[in-house]
Write the structure tokens for this entry.
Amino acid sequence: MLKRNKNNKASGNSLHKKAKKYIPGGNSLLSKRREMFAPNQWPAYFESAKGITVKDISGNLFRDFSHFAVGTNSLGYGNSKVDKAVKNCIEKGNMCTLNPPEEVFLAEKLVKMHPWSSMARFARTGGEANTIAVRIARAFTKKSKIAFCGYHGWHDWYLSANIRNKKNLDLQLLSGLSTNGVPKELESTSIPFFEGELNKLEDILKQKDVAAIKMEVMRSKKPSKQYLEDVKFLSKKYKSLLIFDECTSGFRETFGGLHLKYDVNPDLMILGKALGNGYAITSVLGKEEIMEKSQSTFISSTFFTERIGFVAALATLDEMERVKSWEKISSIGSFFKAGISKLFTSYGLKLELSGMDALVSYNVNHKESREIKTFITQEMLKNNFLCGNLFYPSTSHTKKDIKDFFNSLDKVLRKLKLILDKNEKVKDHLKGPVSHNSFERLN
Ligand SMILES: Cc1ncc(COP(=O)(O)O)c(C=O)c1O
């Protein structure tokens, strides 16, 4: 039985200690480490989540204004339509010797949403789906190297980029990623470029052994249609495949991949995160002649066939389409962006905003920015809000929630301004260590 410790906002401390004893690092996802928010203060463990309300294991309630389970739940936590479909699936049976028919229905639905594609394969995590796409691209082109931009998961093919230079991945999304355990023989098989670096990309492609260019359509900055077309042109010129990783960008601004909006189609594409509204399901879509190459190599896993994922995705897609979730979350996000920027400016603080409206990233431009971020998280917890420096809106966030968030934030910023005006160190006002902003080993 979990012990309730009402009104103790730093709940989960003892469980967190135990977690570090039994799980290296304490958990299985960097982005959910409490050290990424406010070490020793972030509640860490949840008992239940519904809409945008999270109940921690001490019974405290919070409204979630953070990365919202890293973007998995654009229809809110515990969406009743999706959960009903999943419960029904559990009643009928989740796993079986035979295949679930919903795998076929989902493949058909996703292919119809992306008319340039004709076939789909499924996995359960974004990193797996990316690795499948890399394998298919290598099998199809009979080439080895991958030119990439952005973050694409934890697998060897991606981390190998840091073998030659351990800072290669630092500015892609996560810094400090170690290659310990990655075969050194993979050196220079994955080569990074940055958004907009067409010359650099062409230099990589000139090495003639590049199976694919892999990139997100957008992370922090809106791409131009021309840029996407130029990358596609280069992929054709050098006979490499173009893979869009839409794990995060998919379903936020469009129904499906963001590339649909730009009308620039890849050869392969990955969808994940929001696809199952919190249930594990990711997919690789592609053109038939390329996807068929997955039959010439071995890509197979027991839980790739779990029924819940397909059922959840089908229900999620129906609900997204019904409520036009991508429009709703973009509008909520744009309201948030406008308000938060005005609020920080009114206290003389410069806020840097990036990302699409439906995936807002903000950062105070200040020499103590990490301390300020931690201070805001700490103080907003007292007001029963979860926040960091990312806001992933969901259809469950209302304008009233956002106004309440701003009212609380206003008070926190007033307190912060007094600290800064008195030339005091923000760090001295923290009740725990400063948040991490990269991959760090934990003790
Ligand atoms: C663009 C992109 N690709 C791949 C991944 C990895 O997905 P997962 O954490 O489900 O393995 C992520 C996760 O943040 C992502 O944003």
Q: What stands out?
A: The radius of gyration is 22 Å. Confidence is low (pLDDT under 50) at residues 1-5. The first strand starts at residue 46 and ends at 50. The chain has two domains: 13-78+325-429, 101-305.
